[in-house]
Amino acid sequence: MLAWELAKNHKAKVALLDADIQGTCISAKALNSKLPFEVYSVGSKMQLWEKGKILGEQGYDYLIIDGNPRSIHEDPALIEVIAKLSDLNLIISRASPRDLKAQLKYVEIVKKATSGEIRLLWNFYQKNTGAHREGVPEGENLLNLKSIKTKIGLRVAYQDVGYAECYIGDLGNKEAASEIKSLGNEIKRLLDGKN
């Protein structure tokens, strides 16, 4: 969704590097060749490093890396390379103690490896749930990280974005479109050093 937003509404040249073993970004591009950004599969830290270097030289405005927290068990060196390459590392989590505790080792590796920003992005967030509202400051304290302001809600509208030939704003869900627009604007400001 972030790649869509940056490419479509910010008119940016965007590449998404799919380093997740599930390959959901690659399969989305295969099903929808009209996605307004390029998607590349990278299966190892060497492929990621080389592809990132090539795309950087080709003038891409944004390189988004889709990693996998499970890599901590499968290939922790890949997490280190992602963190080293990234100007902004988004730790995506639900606002629940179990999900947050599962992030501890991952966040520790990212903190050691990166010189860039690290922020929490709350996903499946339910603003009317006390546990989620309380979970945000608890998570920030537990992981010793700041959150970005935008929170991504639990919405059916997000399920098939990328697989359908449409952008989230085309689906008629104004709240979802507003969240993604806000996320794109906030990411751009952070990377431009304005937050």
How would you sum up this structure, described in words?
There is one protein chain. By secondary structure, this protein is α/β, with parallel strands linked by helices. It has a single domain (2-191), classed as 3-Layer(aba) Sandwich (Rossmann fold). It is 46% helix and 19% strand. It has helices at residues 2-8, 24-31, 45-57, 71-74, 76-85, 97-102, 104-113, 130-143, 174-191, and strands at residues 14-18, 38-41, 62-66, 88-93, 117-125, 146-153. The protein has a three-stranded parallel sheet with strand order 2-1-3, sandwiched between helices. It has a three-stranded parallel sheet with strand order 4-5-6, sandwiched between helices. Strand 1 (14-18), helix 2 (24-31) and strand 2 form a beta-alpha-beta unit. The protein is globular. The two termini are 21 Å apart. The mean pLDDT is 84.
Keywords:
6 strands; alpha/beta; 19% strand; three-stranded parallel beta sheet; Rossmann fold; globular; 195 residues
Outline of the structure:
The protein is an alpha/beta fold and 195 residues long. Helix 8 links the parallel strand 5 and strand 6.
Low-confidence blocks of residues: none
CATH architecture group name:
3-Layer(aba) Sandwich
Radius of gyration: 16 Å
CATH-defined fold name: Rossmann fold
| Helix proportion range | 40-55%
- By oligomeric state, this entry counts as single chain
Strand and helix order: HEHEHEHHEHHEHEH
CATH superfamily, called what? P-loop containing nucleotide triphosphate hydrolases
Please tell me what the overall shape is: globular
Number of strands: 6
